[in-house]
Amino acid sequence: ENFKPAQVLDSLKASSNHLALNRKLHFSIAKDDNVNFEIDSLTGDLYLSKELDYETDSHFLLQVIIKNCNNPPQNSTVFLSIDVEDKNDHSPHFQDDFVVIGIEENVPVGTLVYTFNAKDGDGGFLNSKIEYSLEISNTGENPFLIHPLYGTLTTASPLDREITHSVILTVFAEDQAINLTDRRLDSLAVKIVILDINDNSPSFMSSPLSYVMEDVEVGFLVHHIVARDPDEGRNGQVTYHILSGNENKAFVLDKITGLLTTAQFLDREIQDRYSLTVMALDDGSPALSATQVLTIIVLDVNDEAPGFLKQLYETAVHENRDPGEFVIRVEAVDRDAGPNSLLQYEILPGAGYEKFKMNSDSGELVTAASLDRETQDIFSIKGSSCHDLGSPSRSSTAQLYLTVLDENDHNPLFAKTQYQISVTEDLEEGSAILDLSASDEDAGLNGKVMFSLIDDTYGAFAINSVTGSIVTTKALDRETKSQYTFRAVASDCSTHFPRSTTVMTVLLQDVNDNTPKFEQSYYKASIWEGQSPKTDIIQVFAADLDSGLNGETEYSIVSGNENATFLIDSARGILATNTGLDYENTSSYRFLVLLASDRGTPSLNSTATVLITVLDVNDNPPVFSSPEYHVHVKESIPIGSNITEVSAKDCDAGTNAEITYAIISGNDRGHFCLDGRTGSVNLTKTLDYEDTVKFTLVIQAT
Questions:
Q1: How far apart are alpha carbons 45 and 42 in whole angstroms?
Q2: What CATH number was assigned to the domain covering residues 620-701?
Q3: How distant is the alpha carbon of residue 463 from its chain centre?
Q4: Third-level CATH fold of 517-615
Q5: How many CB atoms neighbour CB 48 within 10 A?
Q6: Long-range contacts of the stretch 41-44 (C-beta < 8 A, 24+)
Q7: What are the residue boundaries of the Cadherin domain, all occurrences included (predicted)?
Q8: Does 2.60.40.60 match the CATH number of domain 307-405?
């Protein structure tokens, strides 16, 4: 667009044009298109007639008419498109030279503050493209950030008006021409005022502690409460209020000045301190506040007389103690404080007061001499005085009543030094077996006797500590333990526990409470048959833990002996035969039941079963099933053939009944053989009827 007028832009004359063959052409621009351009009618050179402005027209379309000089003339039309290139000839510019912006201090980071909009008159993209930047006027931290393309100014960090009231910035707008030297810029001064938000609570500057004498007049200035609020305007205006601790309306607080004064008379003895919760409140919206606990200490004036906690002090003291024995501590209270409350004690003269002395500081009364209860058992001292150290001093009195206690110089004594008693073992738990008695010549607790047991009774006995009654604590069993020996103690209830002892021996008498018990509930025994009567078979034993007749055991047979085959020694438990036994008749006696009975009343018993096995004796010979065997055979039967079988039976048992067969005669020539175990007779030689018609074999079974 900065091309100068009268300079040739281009030439339209060309040899390729079919009108140029004649070489005589005429060039012209359509009259509506020749405002900014001219063309040489003969040469076709195109000229700029006036300066161009890209921002006004960036494109032209020219209609060029070309004619020749032939007859008839010929012409043609050419459209010429011309683009105007932009020149960076405009600077960016802001609408204002100075901008003042207000923003509240509590906005979050990233809040939009302002949008800058600079304009650039250039038409090219880069020549009119604007980038923004900023500078802060001082060296402090810049809490703002500008977007380089959009010109938006935002907060980059939290704002605080109490630290920074305002910020001065310079904002720059620069175009982006390709050549850095061609770039243009403009600037704008910006003042950002940070607006106050009520974000600070008042802060107390005054002390939380104050002192005041208890006798000041109403309206006396006690304390000046001061609080500061860094906010401005109404946000920083503070008023004062009492929230709590002033329920009795003792004080008045001026809400504007913060002056705290008394509203009534004070009494330190009623209330020696006040804890006022004071609030400082600003005038912001919403209002912020702070609280402080203001402690007001009321200082003492000596306006109270000391007073004993009791007007009559009663106590007791032991006789025969060395001088200096503590008796009692009297105590008075003075509601004043400091020296006004420090007290001094003394005994006023009276009957017997010389036997005591009092510590003037602590009020402790001690003996000045050893006391004798038999001489004087009561002391009534009518004057115990105290006074404070205030100015002027104040005082009061109280009375002492002292009782001399008896010395525990006697031991309790049992009526006997030892006891022996017998009891039956079937006593129920909790049964009393003996009531012990002991006496103590002392008085009061010194003479009150308490009973206890000090030896192990195996949990069988206990004693009533008051009555001395000895009782059983579990069921007794003579068979477990037949005698108990332990000591009983009689002691008084004094702190030194003087005591005496007696020895207890408890003998348990037997009760028939145990059944005789066989060593086994099932016995096994054996005996050979054929034994003579009264042969011992087995001795059984039943134990009875009782003693005397209760433990003496007698034995008998209660069943299984219907034929009186057996008998038993009632004292020794020896089981014997009563008749001869025959194995072949009865081989065992399975249900012989024995009874063991004691001689107690009533008698107790138990039973046991005995299995008696009769052992076999070889007293029976084998007996053949037939005394003679007749066999007929043919002479032609082959060797090895079975001729016959003989059999015999034996009534004995075991090996006594095992039978062996043998040929004892008639087989001299060896025609037959006999199986000794089975009794089978077999042929061993060929028979010949013509030789021998009959064989008589004698076979023995053993």
A1: 8
A2: 2.60.40.60
A3: 45
A4: Immunoglobulin-like (2.60.40)
A5: 17
A6: 43/11, 43/13, 44/11, 44/12, 44/13
A7: 1-94, 103-204, 212-308, 309-414, 415-518, 519-624, 625-702
A8: yes
Q: Does 19 have pLDDT greater than 60?
A: no
> What is the CATH code of the structural domain delimited by 7-83?
2.60.40.60
Model confidence over 454-471: pLDDT tens digits?
Answer: 989 999 999 999 999 999
**Helix extents (H) in 131-216:** none
pLDDT digits (tens, 9 = 90+) for 466-501: 999 999 999 999 989 999 999 999 998 876 667 899
Contacts of 601 (CB under 8 A, 6+ apart): 512
Task: Fold for 92-195, please state it.
Answer: Immunoglobulin-like (2.60.40)
What are the φ/ψ torsions at residue 657 (nearest 5 degrees)? Answer: -105, 5
Check residue 15 and report its DSSP letter.
T
Q: In 10 A of CB 281, how many CB atoms? A: 20
Residue 590 — pLDDT band, cuts 50, 70, 90? confident
| Identical fold between 307-405 and 517-615 | yes
Residue closest to 535 by CA, chosen among 420, 627, 623, 615 = 615
Residue 632: which residues within 8 A CB-CB, separation 6 or more? Answer: none
Q: Which class does domain 203-299 fall in?
A: mainly beta
**CB neighbour list of residue 369: distance below 8 Å, 6 or more residues apart:** 323, 355
CA distance 373 to 402: 11
> What H or E segment, with its residue span, contains residue 127?
helix 125-128
Q: Which long-range contacts (CB under 8 A, 24 or more apart) does 83-86 make?
A: 83/58, 83/59, 84/1, 84/52, 84/54, 84/57, 84/58, 84/59, 84/60, 85/1, 85/54, 85/124, 86/1, 86/54, 86/55, 86/58, 86/122, 86/123, 86/124, 86/127
Question: Is the bond preceding 73 in cis, omega lying within 30 degrees of 0?
Answer: no
The residue ranges of every structural domain in the chain are 7-83, 92-195, 203-299, 307-405, 413-509, 517-615, 620-701
Domain 413-509 sits in CATH at 2.60.40.60
Taking the C-alpha atoms of residue 249 and residue 245, their distance in angstroms, rounded to an integer, is: 9
DSSP helix, strand, coil percent of the chain (3-state; round to 5) = 5, 45, 50
Coil vs helix vs strand at 128: helix
Continuous segment of H or E residues that includes residue 68: strand 59-68
Share of the chain above pLDDT 70, in %: 96
- Which residue is associated with the tokens 């037959």? 672
The two structure tokens encoding residue 560 = 């299984």
Q: What dihedral angle (degrees, nearest 10) is formed by the CA atoms of 508, 514, 519, 521?
A: -170
The pLDDT tens digits of the residues spanning 179-237 come to 888 788 888 999 999 988 888 899 999 999 999 998 899 999 999 999 999 988 899 99
What is the rounded CA–CA span in Å between residue 231 and residue 236? 4
DSSP string of 528-549, one letter each residue: ETTPPTT-EEEE--EE--S-GG
The Cα–Cα gap between 588 and 616 comes to 11
For residue 18, pLDDT beyond 60: no
- Token output for 298: 């009321």
Report which DSSP code applies to 93. B
